[in-house]
Protein: DedA family protein
Organism: Streptomyces cuspidosporus
Amino acid sequence: MHIEEWLETVPAVSVYLLVGLVIGLESLGIPLPGEIILVSASLLAASQDHINPYILGGSAIAGAVIGDSIGYLIGRKGGQPLLNWLGRKFPKHFSAEHVATAERYFQKWGMWAVFVGRFIALLRIFAGPLAGCLRMPYWKFLIANVLGGIVWAGGTTAVIYSVGKVAEDWLKRFSWLGLVAALLFGLGSMLVMKRRAKKAQAEAVEAEQAGPGAAEQQPVPAAD
């Protein structure tokens, strides 16, 4: 069976549920490739008429908002012990350095960190639980959460779907290449985010070392 024929047999509802579930779990605090799934599904919608882009975007938005809200409630109940537990379970994502970096973003930007965090892989996982742990007022969190979910999930779906429709003929002939391109795009974005996270972590370490170091390097008054 040609891949185009196989894709036509994929139930649209399963695509909607998969996108909403993966993005919801990622927003809740579980490190999953939500962005890759959303980009792939949007390209799929561009080449398959039975997948409605509006329902797809709505599923992604719902998953983002609901997942973040559940993560907020879990963080509010669990507090710092929850972050410590996540650090032991997912050391690559919830290490002390990553948590400290995310906390600095929240302390500096407040509710804007929730909105902007939707576009950054590291903060997208942290936003809900960390906002709850830091006792951010829920109404502030909800506003930033909803706006961020609409702009990120809805915007990503609209942009990728539009690009896919422009190249629809090409995608129909080489749909497997479109999926590969989507995966490469998602992996590339993840690598960029990891490099940014490492850079932020290195800057944090330098800042911590500069504190005591500066005190040691202060000039000593000359003896009379």
